[in-house]
Structure formats: C-alpha cells, structure tokens
Amino acid sequence: MKNKIFLYLFLFVSLICLYLFVSSNKIVKAGSEKISKLEKQVEVLKDSVQTSSLKVLDMQYFSLENNDDALAYFDHLDLENPAGYIADKLLETNAQKGDNPLVPYEGMQNDFKINKIKVLNHKWILTDFSDGKYWGELLIRYELKDDLGLDFTLVDHLLYTRSN
Known about the structure:
Layout: H1 2-59, H2 68-71, H3 82-91, E1 113-119, E2 124-130, E3 135-144, E4 150-159
Antiparallel strand pairs: 1-2, 2-3, 3-4
C-alpha cells in the first residue's frame, strides 16, 4: 500500500514537473517575442524623437534666444532674458481698453489683442492677434533703449479672411 502511494505521488509530481517545463518554454518564447517587438518599437520611437529634435532646432533658428549676434546688442543692459522682457512689454499693450494700438484693424467680434509673440532678433517681432473669431499676424520693429524703454513700430500686417 505504501509503495502504491509513493508510486502515485511520484507520477503526480512528474506530471506537474512536465507541465511546468512545457509551459515555461511557452512563456519564455512569448516573452522573447514581446521583447523583440518592444525593442523594434523603441528604435522607431528613437528615430521619431531624433526627427522631432531636428525639427525643433530648425524652428528655433529664427529666435533671439539662439542668436548670439543679436543677443550681443543687449549685453550692456544686464537683462537676464531679453526676449521675455520684450514679450512682456508687448503684452502690456493689450492692457489698454479697446483694440491693441499696434493692430491696424477694428475688432469685429471683440477687441483685437495680441496672443502669441516670437522675438526673431534684436529688431523684429512676429505676433499673432485675434478677436476670438478673426485673426491675423503682425511684423513689428522694436527698439530697446538704454533706459529699458521700448518703441514698437508696425512694419507689416495681414488679416486672414474666413473661408466659410
């Protein structure tokens, strides 16, 4: 009787070991397939990040922050962030009641206000303005004086027409 119990116990343990061996091989194969898929995905994502980085560098070409020659014009003023200072001063023109004085159009839905600002170099700014429904762009010349005063001069402008 004791021998039969040991025999059945041995068979049962053998079947469990066989099952674990077969299932572990399947798990290892599935895991290695997942790993290879993830490695391919990582390579694709690395390429995508590299492409995006190159696009960002290309877009930053026309910016005051990356133009050392233009930044040299502001060295004597001891400004930590000249582009931020200029953008803040330009946004202060939005505080006036009514349309922004630099926008040569009257707002149709609301008042035209400047939304986005791109300081291109030590002389020019590109801005976007809108009244909530209509929008346009401005090219502004500016002069930063030694007393940190700013003079803005509108160079060119355009107002987009609605297609619908």
